[in-house]
Specification:
Elements (H helix, E strand, L loop, with lengths): L1 E8 L6 H11 L9 E8 L5 E8 L2 H7 L2 H11 L4 E6 L8
Antiparallel strand pairs: 1-3, 1-4, 2-3
Length: 96
């Protein structure tokens, strides 16, 4: 499994309510997305960083998603370009 962290550094803080509204508006587009097992939307306490943690079946699925068109769409939505980090996830603990 591959996990990506996508972060946007905002010029102005965003409230939790405003971030939630944006996240809820984009979530349907990720339902059933090829190779995406799970996504968590994130917002820092100070509201200056938002983004997501994506859990992928493969690196290929992640790279195909982060296309030029996707980058343009999210840059317009958040007013900042995404910073994308890739992580291998060889072991998982599930306490559910």
């Amino acid at each position: 499994m591959i996990i990506t962290q996508v972060v946007f550094h905002l010029s102005e803080p965003i409230s939790l309510q405003a971030a939630t509204e944006i996240f809820e508006s984009t979530a349907p587009g990720y339902r059933g997305h090829p190779g995406l097992r799970r996504k968590y939307y994130i917002r820092s306490d100070d509201g200056l960083r938002v983004g997501g943690l994506y859990f992928w079946e493969s690196r290929r699925h992640a790279r195909e998603t982060y296309s030029d068109a996707w980058r343009a769409m999210v840059t317009e939505k958040y007013g900042a370009a995404p910073e994308i980090s890739y992580f291998d996830a060889p072991v998982m603990v599930d306490n559910s």
